[in-house]
Design goal:
Layout lengths: L4 E6 L6 H15 L3 E6 L13 E4 L3 E3 L7 E3 L7 H18 L3 E5 L9 H13 L5 E7 L8 H14 L2 E5 L21 E3 L20 E4 L7 H13 L7 E4 L6 H8 L6 E4 L5 H7 L2 E4 L3 H8 L5 E3 L9 H11 L4 E2 L7 H13 L12 H12 L1
Parallel strand pairs: 1-2, 1-6, 2-3, 6-7, 7-8, 8-9, 10-11, 10-13, 11-12, 13-14, 14-15
Antiparallel strand pairs: 4-5
Helix pairs in contact: 1-11, 2-3
């Protein structure tokens, strides 16, 4: 008999935030002794830490750009019906082989609608399975606002038809699902908040990097090139004082952008591709400047370091702006909008952030990975 296990599906399309959050959840699950099959549908990234979970790579796909309209495979070719049929077969075969006790779909059905071609068949297969696996939808703190009523009805109907629970990886004292999902009243009976999922930092107690610095972090880097260019230009033209600046650009920052800034060295300025100890760097820093993605914000809030958020607002994205505004309203951070970012707006935000550094930090639930693991263990 196959032992109880969890089938964790995640599809990242552009950045790495969804993948990192799912990986943290997988580690939380294996830490309490659960078996996890980690099914990834995005382009692989190096050094993804999923603990002792078993990794399964579906034929990878990504978004061609930040509008998420065109999906391409690892060679850059737009996917077609034959590609979809092949991937659907592989996903359903994995389900049959692993016979999971619980299936968790990260973001779907709140997002990833382009993958209904494989996820609805997966849900149907799970619902018909003799061993009756439980179904869980997993989502971040904020839903990207959908203006079409029919899409929101589709989400609600899918949840009520197939799912046993909706895990919201946020703190309802900061934001509730009602604020970004207009039909939340139809799924209240399914919803449970877990707190923010924090990726632990690989820290060295003897490490001093970041101490007294301004640390600029741009998430995975896929959508941070405009902000990087502006911040590097500000740094070049206005050195402020002798405070060192450290830029962490992420694995998906285009090589040409990284090459451009590295070929323009500045005094007291460091540019690095990745730092697994980023939360520790931020914790030692004088000031943090970052975008407002889920993982980055969780890492910033885990520290008591003054912070400025520059939310990404490209394409139809509203998530980062909403998150940044809510945190600023609660006095946790300062915000400078991407289209307003220049030396004057940043200097004012820096002054305000440093002036308020003695304020009592915002109390926020950061035990999301542990609480998610406990909820799923009880469901099994």
């Amino acid at each position: 008999m196959t032992p109880p296990n969890i089938f964790l599906y995640v599809q990242n399309l552009l950045g790495i935030g969804h993948l990192r959050r799912a990986a943290a959840i997988a580690r939380g699950l294996v830490d309490i002794g659960l078996d996890v099959n980690f099914i990834s549908g995005g382009i692989p990234i190096p050094n993804l830490d999923i603990g002792s979970a078993k990794f399964h790579q579906l034929p990878p796909v990504r978004s061609l750009d930040r509008n998420f309209k065109v999906l391409v495979d690892e060679t850059g070719r737009e996917i077609d019906d034959a590609w979809r049929q092949n991937r659907r077969s592989k996903l359903l075969n994995l389900f049959e082989e692993t016979r999971p006790s619980l299936v968790l779909t990260e973001l779907f059905p709140f997002g990833r609608r382009q993958f209904r071609f494989e996820l609805i068949p997966l849900l149907d297969r799970a619902q018909a399975a003799k061993w009756q696996p439980r179904m869980i939808a997993s989502m971040r703190d904020i839903l990207v606002t959908k203006s079409r009523l029919d899409r929101n009805i589709e989400i609600s109907q899918t949840l009520n038809q197939y799912y046993d629970k909706v895990l919201v990886h946020g703190d309802k004292q900061i934001i509730t699902l009602e604020e970004t999902f207009p039909l939340s009243h139809e799924i209240t009976h399914l919803v449970e908040y877990t707190g923010y999922v924090l990726n632990p930092s690989a820290s060295d107690t003897k490490e001093t990097a970041g101490s007294g610095e301004i640390v600029v972090s741009l998430g995975g880097g896929a959508v941070g090139s405009d902000t990087l260019t502006k911040l590097f230009k500000i740094r070049r033209e206005n050195s402020m004082d002798d405070t060192p600046w450290r830029f962490i650009v992420g694995p998906h920052m285009p090589e040409r952008m990284l090459h451009e800034v590295q070929q323009s060295p500045l005094k007291n300025t460091i540019v690095e591709r990745m730092r697994p100890d980023l939360p520790s760097l931020i914790n030692r820093a004088r000031l943090s400047i970052s975008q407002a993605g889920y993982n980055t914000v969780a890492e910033v809030l885990s520290c008591n370091t003054p912070a400025i958020l520059v939310p990404f607002e490209g394409g139809e994205e509203t998530e980062q702006r909403i998150r940044a505004d809510l945190l600023a309203k609660r006095g946790a951070v300062e915000v400078v909008y991407e289209d307003k970012l220049d030396w004057h707006t940043l200097a004012k935000a820096i002054t305000r952030a440093l002036k308020n550094r003695t304020k009592t930090p915002l109390r926020i639930d950061l035990q999301g990975a542990e609480r998610t693991a406990e909820i799923l263990r009880k469901m099994i």
